[in-house]
Amino acid sequence: MKDAKDIFSTQAGTYAAYRPHYPDALFEYLYSVCKGYGKAWDCATGNGQVASRLSERFTDVYATDLSAQQVAHAIQRPNIHYSVQRAEHTNFADNSFDLITIGTALHWFDFDVFYKEAIRVAKDGAVIAAWAYAPFRGSEDLDAVVDDFTYKTLHDYWDPERKWVDEKYQTIPFPFEQPEHPDFKINVTWSFEHMIGYLNSWSSVQHYIRKHGVNPVDAIAPKLTQFWKNQEVKALEIPLFVKIGMIRK
């Protein structure tokens, strides 16, 4: 089995505070194609963002993550049951779940092993959904600054699995029947401080800090201030790419 990567423990608090929230339209679509609303499993739950949304509809939500630090920062709800487990090997019973979600994490998994586990614990006809997001888009000038930081400054500091995200999940293995679904996007309004916090949550930034002892975000911050002059918040759009499948047994 592929070795598990605990990428986000170091910046768990930053991750919880500054990562964007997924749109209502995504969850409403998932609910519309689910057969039941008994149990959902949110894999690699991180700060529990997805689990908290699922808890509004499902009787019980089981949320797992490799990182105990992430789970410690997670959103608490009475019907969310957190545990520290690998997505590829859990203690869940067979045929348990109506929905399985993986928010911005599938690219880290050992695909074949995880899919076998997902099929084992899913009910027949359950929905499995995975998604991630591309770099945000604001204005041409702002996008150019952030893209230069993303793909040049941090080029050597992204994990190899980043390629699945750069390819917008179009090439990621996903061996399930995939119904047509609408496009989704995240619309945010961020302050300059929120933008800096978001960049600091990136795994590549943490890799850079560990190697060089300095934070590369400090160098890009002055370039970004020009886009927030006399402006408390800025509207940005984050493209979301989604894989939705039906598990048949």
Short description:
With 249 residues, the protein is α/β, with parallel strands linked by helices. Helix content is 35%, strand content 22%.
Number of strands: 7
Helix/strand/pairing class, anyone? Answer: alpha/beta
Q: Taking strands numbered 1, 2, ... along the chain, how are they ordered across the largest sheet?
A: 3-2-1-4-5-7-6
What is the radius of gyration? 18 Å
Q: Do you know the CATH topology of the domain at 12-136 and 160-187 and 238-247?
A: Rossmann fold
Write down the CATH class of the domain at 12-136 and 160-187 and 238-247.
Answer: Alpha Beta
| Percent helix | 25-40%
**Quick one: CATH superfamily of the domain at 12-136 and 160-187 and 238-247?**
Vaccinia Virus protein VP39
The low-pLDDT segments are 5-12
CATH architecture identity of the domain at 12-136 and 160-187 and 238-247? 3-Layer(aba) Sandwich
User: What is the H/E string?
Assistant: HHEHEHEEHEHHEHHHE
Quaternary status: single chain
Overall geometry comes to globular
Termini separation: 24 Å
